[in-house]
Amino acid sequence: ASNGDVSVDPLRMVAKEMKFLTGNIRQLLGSGHPSLDTVAKYYTQAEGKHVRPLLVLLMSRATSLTPKAPRYGGQQSFADIDNPISPMSILSDVNPSIPSNNPITTQTQTSCPASETDILPSQRRLAEITELIHTASLLHDDVIDHSVSRRGAPSANLEFGNKMAVLAGDFLLSRASVALARLRDAEVTELLATVIANLVEGEFMQLKNTARDEKNPVWTEETISYYLQKTYLKSASLISKSCRAAALLGRSDAPTVDAAYLYGKNLGLAFQLVDDMLDYTISEKELGKPAGADLELGLATAPLLFAWKNNKELGLLVGRKFSLEGDVVRARELVLQSDGLEQTRALAEEYASRAIDSISSFPDCEAKEGLVDMAIKTIKRRK
Ligand code: FPP
Ligand code: MG
Ligand code: MG
Fold first, then answer.
1. What is the ipTM of this complex?
2. pTM of the model
3. Residue 215: pLDDT band with limits 50, 70, 90
4. Which end of the chain is more exposed for a tag (fewer CB within 10 A), N or C?
5. Which Gene Ontology terms of cellular component type are present (predicted)?
């Protein structure tokens, strides 16, 4: 029984691995230059939620008894070299599902072993790499967003200045890349390198708000699909591709690898939808970072986009990025009067339930329950 079962604690299931996470990350970030060392390790001081490493570790454990398939040392075939790098489309950026005559649903279901040996050292390292990439993106994000707080403390840009915060972010990316290269798995390296490109692509899409630069944009179905693609690139790409990578490192077969990816993609979309909702509903004190920041930054996220569908007045405000006096207050008012927040929550719930469905064929075990619980907690979270 997983749904609503309070005895399920995802953190406890991978507690041993999580205990070493921050220490190992700090080791990866060591620099001979004392001030670079300080700035690089700054965001590891406050306790983050560690959602991404937690997911990687749970996925590693949950896939440890799914069917295995031989891999070619993680090497891509040479034909791949001619393919274009880093496409922008959600649909074409990962290997499509490989049809299989051997669906995992037909496999015998076994329990996860209780031993600690089912998570590989490479999978533990992958968990650290995902947190490094995430933290690097936060260092850059706080500069772009002029943010003054993060994880309940002054942001790195406020504490050390923009230049050092940007360079520290680059340093984290570099150390993540070195750790990734040392896994000696070309497919996993390609996945995580693509994530870094996707983060930048997502951030660029966000700076533009809508597909076309217009003074008075009109609401179309494309408004939502543009937002979802941006959200995939900005948030779900790291989660989905690292879940995929965890399964690959464990030598899982293709249906398992695809299931892990789909779980991460759906969970990542749910996670960001909730994030965009909390920006409207939760105080700065509880969030540990500025609240109501999106409108101030000129950003139209899901709650506003749903409100806009029924109130054309919002189009004008979106077009000028809420830049005139009173725009932010007015937009906020219109969103709160609308069903935008409810619709955002409903969509997040839909993605969370899709995440759970994605791994339904995994053998029943504690780690699978942990993944299910993570999807439920993603919807319920307040920070
Ligand atoms: C947080 O979003 C930011 C991200 C999820 C990704 C930001 C990506 C970049 C800045 C691209 C460049 C980065 C790298 C590492 C290549 P948010 O601002 O909506 O959330 P917040 O409220 O936590 O600040
Ligand atoms: Mg931000
Ligand atoms: Mg941002």
1. 0.97
2. 0.88
3. confident
4. N
5. transferase complex
